[in-house]
């Protein structure tokens, strides 16, 4: 046998051995993620992490995280004082039930202006209606309700459907994304009820939309959305909306809008 034929034979043998080894490895593997026999689903439901969470959430010390949140808000007193805003919610469907006018209830919001000045300033600017041409939260609707998270609102665009938003002109980012601005900090966690966070569509894509949590802990929001405030009064109203509002794929069956907003 000449050298060329020998080399060809050796190559074929190597390929055959490699194929057999790969096949053997597949048969002896521990299975794909979620394969039967690992008990990952039971661990997942029990909050023990499993293979998906890798022990990430169940070890959270919410008391310590809440204490850190308190320290962040306490910075306001030493720097520039505590700033608050309000949102007056109106459920339009209540007018059709016999009342002369729909019920309006207020939610008061405390902002972490010392730790997140730019994010808070964008929110405060949108809470004010300086003239007809300026963007404002007034008239914006709740476009999504997630029972295990909270309520989503803040679309100040003409469509007001939650598909897009726009930051205030004073917060404009780069020319590549003129309607959004960058992430400022993730120092606040979602380890307590009533946290307010920007609803970003990606890294450094914060606009006007935000979410208010109505659950005690929302760890999946940490690191993804920038929390910048919390509800100081009126969380019961939001909990009632989440619990009693009929929704279809998250969209509320009645119009819930911000009738008025401003700075306290």
From TrEMBL:
Keywords: Isomerase, Rotamase
Domain PPIase cyclophilin-type: start-end pairs: 106-263
Domain of life, per lineage: Eukaryota
Catalytic activity annotation: [protein]-peptidylproline (omega=180) = [protein]-peptidylproline (omega=0)
InterPro entries reported for this sequence: Cyclophilin-like_dom_sf (IPR029000), Cyclophilin-type_PPIase_dom (IPR002130)
GO cellular component terms given for this protein: cytoplasm
Signal peptide location: none
The keyword Membrane belongs to this UniProt entry's keyword annotation: no
UniProt family annotation: Belongs to the cyclophilin-type PPIase family.
Role summary: PPIases accelerate the folding of proteins. It catalyzes the cis-trans isomerization of proline imidic peptide bonds in oligopeptides.
Protein name, per record: Peptidyl-prolyl cis-trans isomerase
